[in-house]
Amino acid sequence: PQIPQGILSTLRSLYSINDINSTDNSNAKIRSHLSLVIIGHVDAGKSTLTGRLLLSLNHVSQRQYQKHIKSSTDIGKSSFALAWFTDEDEDERQRGVTIDVATKYISTKKYDFTILDAPGHRDFVPNMISGAASADCGLLVVAATTGEFEAGFAKGGTGGGDEDVGTCCGQTREHVLLSRGLGVTQFVVAVNKLDAADPAWSERRFEEIKSSMTSFLKEVGYREKNITVVPVSGLTGVNIHRKEGKMSEDESEGWLALQKWYKGPTLVEAMDNFNPAKREFEKSLRVIVTDVSSEGKNVNIRGRVARGFVRMGEDVVVLPVGDEANIVRVERGTAAREGVSPYSFGNTSAPASVSTSSPLPEKGMADIPELQNCALAGDIVEITLSGIDPARLSPGCVICHPHPSLRPKVKRKVEARVLVMDRLSVPIIRGSQVLLHMHSIDVPAVLTKLLSSQRRGDATPRQNPRVITGGVTATVEITLSEKTVLEESNECKSLGRFVLRRGGDTIAVGLIDKVLD
Ligand code: GDP
Predict the structure, then answer these.
(1) Which atom of ligand 1 is nearest to the CA of 44?
(2) What whole-number distance in Å separates Cα of residue 256 and Cα of residue 171?
């Protein structure tokens, strides 16, 4: 089940490149796809900013916005009108699927983005993990208001000061560390709520936050060229997207104040400057299931193609259970799925309501006829399967092609490299019990061997350490409580990267080096 030659050559000609795995799409004739996870401390303004992006890029209508303003004002929550766009919609409620991470689609000039709006509250870190595990890039939102940035960025706890990372402290650091561990390689940092900073649109406040965020991101391992920091106000719509047309008073005041000292990109321009993601179209298929629902005799799943290529009519196998099924429908998530989107299959002309300055298509992947009923690495998909019992499927299952040589391993034991969080209240020892989180699953596990550990600056690693303390890199053997679909991280990022948590705190991020028998 290789990617058919016809489709391959279509992709190559559209991308103007010979190697479709190349990350250089500077000559591409179509928008390529990126998954973007939105992270940040609770109340930093993530949902509001997502709503603003949807509105500014015409994915929701002014009329809908006015409706939200009215109904949110009626219940005394007018400041949440934009955030309501990321609330689960009627359709999702009716289908009864659990969407932990709100998924939205937006299109800019260069990209079709799938936006994963991860919950900021620390109780929802597992959902944040599943968002970051499927993201290529991140939008980190920090609030510039007095005290709010500091609270979100605080290292330790508010009281004792001895808690693990994650205990009563700001979520900004933990989210960044998790994203880094799960393979998110580039970030735009939105310094938000500058309209409410003291004084409003303060250059000094922006620079202060920019410099702490940049040094933190570098410390964690990001390269400066992969970080862009932009000043914005999601609520008033300043520096989100340049467009023609009338502005509100708040909006034009904000733009004027900002233009006095800021010459950099808008948020949308910064997002367009992301590097394209490397897609492993030609490797064997892996679809990671995130939602399951049954429909008559068939089963609908929603998931992400982590690798490879899939199309209607193919036979597949679902792991870890090993049951076979046939694919009767494949639908890729794109901007076209949102009702008011200007983009739809086979129709690339802009509707009248879209202003001329909006970033209008060229073409997206969804517009290529050959790609109907197919999905490729990186896509969010809905797949209908026949011939399988829905009870045998659950979030976290992996769909692949049935030939034994094309399947990932289903095992219980791995050798992995882990980066341990700086602040650990209880050190890790042999036999420590943890919860191993990957994509959308968590499995109880035990650290069965501590093979080596190395502190930053140490010349050589220590062999067989008795304990592992905060801030070290270690090689360990982990035994899971049940057979799980596992893969070496260089084979498949999504199935080879994980997070270890204990008592509700993140203690390490890791990479699988070997899947053991
Ligand atoms: P989330 O928890 O990060 O998703 O934050 P929300 O989007 O729900 O916003 C939290 C609160 O901050 C709401 O009351 C918003 O109206 C407010 N807020 C969000 N963005 C801005 C902004 O740019 N300026 C101001 N002044 N308030 C904002």
Answers:
(1) 3
(2) 32
Supply the pLDDT for residue 152: 79
- B/e letters for 329-357, b = 16+ CB within 10 Å, e = fewer, are ebbbbbbbbbeebbbeeeeeeeeeeeeee
Alpha carbons 312 and 373: distance in angstroms, whole number? 6
pTM: 0.84
Average pLDDT of the chain, as a whole number: 82
pLDDT at residue 366 in the model: 62
Mean pLDDT computed over 41-48: 87
Contact 510, 497 (CB under 8 A): yes
User: Between vectors from CA 229 to CA 336 and to CA 215, what angle results, nearest 5°?
Assistant: 135
Cα–Cα nearest to 136, from 347, 379, 314: 379
Of 120, 159, 127, residue with least CA distance to 291: 127
Angstrom CA distances, 316 to 287, 303, 387, 395, 432, stand at 10, 15, 11, 17, 37
Residue 367 has phi, psi (to 5 degrees) of: -90, 0
Kindly give the distance from the C-alpha atom of residue 120 to the centroid of ligand 1, in angstroms, as a whole number.
12
Tokens of 246: 């009338």
Secondary structure class of 49 (helix, strand, coil): helix
Q: Whose CA is closest to atom 17 on ligand 1?
A: 45
Report the residue among 38, 79, 140 best suited for mutation to probe ligand 1: largest number of ligand atoms under 8 A from its CB. Answer: 79
With a Cβ cut-off of 6 Å, ligand 1 is lined by 40, 42-48, 79, 83, 120, 192-193, 195-196, 233-235
Cα of 179 to ligand 1 centre, how many Å?
A: 22
Between the alpha carbon of residue 277 and those of residues 399, 423, 448, the distances in Å are 22, 32, 35
**Distance from the alpha carbon of residue 85 to the mean position of ligand 1, in angstroms:** 13
| Band of residue 37 on the pLDDT scale cut at 50, 70, 90 | very high
| Residue with CA closest to ligand 1 atom 11 | 43
CB 498 within 8 A of CB 447: no
Average pLDDT over residues 216-243: 93
For residue 338, the model assigns a pLDDT of 39
Quick one: average pLDDT of 103-116?
84
Distance 445 CA to ligand 1 centre (A): 38
Rounded to the nearest 10 degrees, the angle between the axes of helix 171-181 and helix 125-133 is 40
Ligand 1 centroid to residue 309 C-alpha, Å:
39
Q: What is the ipTM of this complex?
A: 0.99
Distance 109 CA to ligand 1 centre (A): 27
User: What share of the chain has pLDDT > 70, as a percent?
Assistant: 81
**pLDDT 10s digits, 383-405:** 999 999 999 999 899 999 999 99
How many whole angstroms separate alpha carbon 3 and alpha carbon 191?
42
